[in-house]
Amino acid sequence: MALDTLKDLYIDELKDLYNAENQLVKALPKMAKAATDPSLKKAFEDHLGQTEGHVAGLEEIFKDLGEKPTGKVCKAMKGLVEEGAELIEEDAAPEVKDAGLIAAAQRVEHYEMAGYGSVRTYAKSLGETAAVKLLQQTLDEEGAADEKLTGIAEGVVNAKAKAKSN
Predict the structure, then answer these.
(1) Which of 11, 14, 106, 162 is surrounded by the fewest CB atoms within 10 Å?
(2) Nearest CA-CA partner of 99 in 155, 33, 30, 45
(3) How far, in Å, CA of 155 to CA of 138, rounded?
(4) Where are the domains of the chain?
């Protein structure tokens, strides 16, 4: 697809996010299974439900645009997911692995926030008001997930991981 217009770029970036979200739908259950801290496990499980909602929201946007959501692989998310999978396989103390899982998940959240912020801005420029609202909601949910992970890290997990060092 030639990227000749802002709308072309918008659709291309939406396809990237759609693929990224679908990769996460597969990765989050593995992260939840690997987590030992109950609050972290629950955060991953809860975010899976949100992620499935993000996929549905993107499908709605594509339907409104008369476009198909397929055709692009998000290489960045593929790399982030692979890093998380490597961490899951590491021989690490459970508390340390949980801290690493949070870091891996936050890298994913920050990537998503950058992507959703950009497409929301494109949608606004293109007058796609329904999409703007949906994309902002998703951006807000990604930010809240990041904040929740920070709270879990600072409140419990990092202290437990640090105790393993003493």
Answers:
(1) 162
(2) 155
(3) 25
(4) 6-163
DSSP conformational letter for 155: I
Rounded CA Rg of the chain: 17
Contact predicate 7/126, CB 8 Å:
yes
Of 47-51, 103-107, 159-163, which range is least confident?
Answer: 159-163
The set of residues, in sequence order, having a beta carbon less than 8 Å from that of 67 and lying 6+ positions away, is: 11, 14
Q: What is the DSSP letter of 128?
A: -
CA atoms within 13 A on the CB side of 38: 0
Going by pLDDT thresholds of 50, 70 and 90, the confidence category of residue 110 is: very high
| CA dist., res. 118 & res. 113, Å (int) | 8
Q: In CATH, what class is 6-163? A: mainly alpha
